[in-house]
Prior knowledge:
4-stranded mixed β-sheet, 29 helices, 3% strand
Amino acid sequence: MWAEFCLAFLLGAVMLYLPGYVAFRAIRIPHLASLSCAPLFSVAAYCLLGIALYSGGVRSSFLTVVLPVLFVVFVAYGAMLVAKHRATPSPSIDRRELRFDGMVACLYVVVGLAVAAFVFVLPLNGPASAAQTYDHVHHFALVRSFADSGAWSSLHTPAYLAGDPAATPFPGASYYPAGWHVLCACLVDTLGIEVSLAANAINFLLVAAVFPLNVALLIRFLFPGNRMVAILGAFCAPAVGAFPWVLVEVWPLYPNAMSLAMLPSVAVCFMAICSCGLGRGRRLAFGAAFLFGLAYMVFTQPNTAFSVGVFLIPFCLYRMGSEANRRWAGHGRRPMIVAGSCVLVGVLIACAWVVLCNLSFMQGVVGYYWPPIVSWPQALLSVAGMSFAGSAVQPIAAVAVVAGVLYSLRRRHYLWLSCSYAGACFIYCVSAAEGDTWLKHLVSGFWYTDPYRTAAFAAVLAIPVMAMGLYGAYAALRRLLATRHVGSDVARKTASAVTVVLVFATLNYLPVRAMLGGGQDAFAGIASFSAALNDGSAMDVYDEAERQFVEEVESAVSDEALVVNQPYDGSLFAYCLSGLNLYYRDMSGYGSQDEESRSVALREGLVSWPADGRVEDAIRSTGAEYVLILERDPERAKEFFALYNEGDWAGIEAIDDSTPGFEVVLAEDDMRLYRITDADPLQ
């Protein structure tokens, strides 16, 4: 299966990078930017085409979605080459910078692969292992639903796309940011692999290549004339536990992780538009890439747009101040004009933030309440120690960030980076420590007041500051060696860089504290927690014996046969992980106004079949043929699922081998498959 994992990884890389890179090169965006921004175009194009095909009744697949996108971009690229050949010669490319960009991209990916292999791959219990957590139920079920149905529309995202439309407890469809699910579904449909294997391959691609390449672009853009900070930044990209590692392993929010992985590229596109050193054509090209970035966030996780905003607000104020300073140079009231301009822009941004918070369609997000996970002092200490939600203290990373802040105080044109990071830390502290107050919803409501999400984007914003800190350490060490006349200048540069990298990498990535008996290190802790989730020792709701029984069930029933189940006995994973055609596939929503009356009749009164006419109507309308029982332990269900209410499922749980109207088909320990007798004539 590891060969399938590698194949899925490679195909995922082709799908993410080939169309986008060619498309952005066609509008003459530089090579490194085209490569790093490529997923913005690819994912947006796949999702838009998936919606169009769904509207036209055409099945989505690799042949109908990926290949047409590739065809269009290669035609566009060919047209660009023809136009370029006929036009006047363009300025020559700096080959040295191009080669350096290529080496930087390779370095970032190599470091990303090395860290991801340790933190992400090794904890997996096989390439298709899946942690049985709350969000996986929805994400994996949607991937399977997309793959089975060929309907890849982010505007229609139930877990019941394939099969009889009546066989669902929750009718209707709604928007959901399903870009991650589309990629996984394409791998499942094309390669015939398991959903969990496709998810692991895509996530590995995100943490090992996509995010590091984004950081490479951001560092190169922010420090264009400084090659050393670009090299040192490679070791900072995967350095913070809160992102991407917590978001793909401890608190797995895959769409959010995929969206945040592209935050640096979206920010660079915006900053390039505002740059003074680019021509109009290049600005328009980056403007197009930025629009694709907005579409990408719509199809992955919209709250990243607000994370980008937090990063760029200090940049906008800095640019505003710089432009006002330039325009009013020599004017006696220049300081007052510059300050007034910045204050005015800041007030307008604050007003826009408040207005967005109070829009009616945002209330489902902004109004969501996540209880505090720490006190205010603990939240501030976690920021100081880089031990954001879900990760341990990272002292060397914290020192590097402090050094970066001090460096920005000396080089004021980078001070806005520290301000962006400080703003993200404030949002994290409010979400992590504040109670159910207006402040919490106003400041962190765009992220569901979830401290794990706010910690993740704070970690992203820490990376350029950390890179500045490592560069400051490198420059200080180099000056020290120079004052003592140690070696040549090249030798001093090399020795300083190697020393900084070795010290930082050793103290940040290796389990130094554990070896010294001082506790668990951040990366080792994340890896061990992930291993526990994947091997079932932390949570094993759907265990191996139940999987094997479900495989027997699949052999005993037809693919179209609908099986009624009590999801909280572990069977809610039997659809997304094993492909069994279940009636109850969701974690929540039972008892809400969205639930069908026939669903209520089945879960509350199925045991009374065939005497109850209401149940008879429900069986007839849904086409239910079988009943699956994996476990009869209400206390265990309550232990794992806070939403489980024993009374809500009495109609299913009360069925046993002697219940009239039900015939035992398979039996093993407490597990049963019952056939609903005389159900066939009702279909």
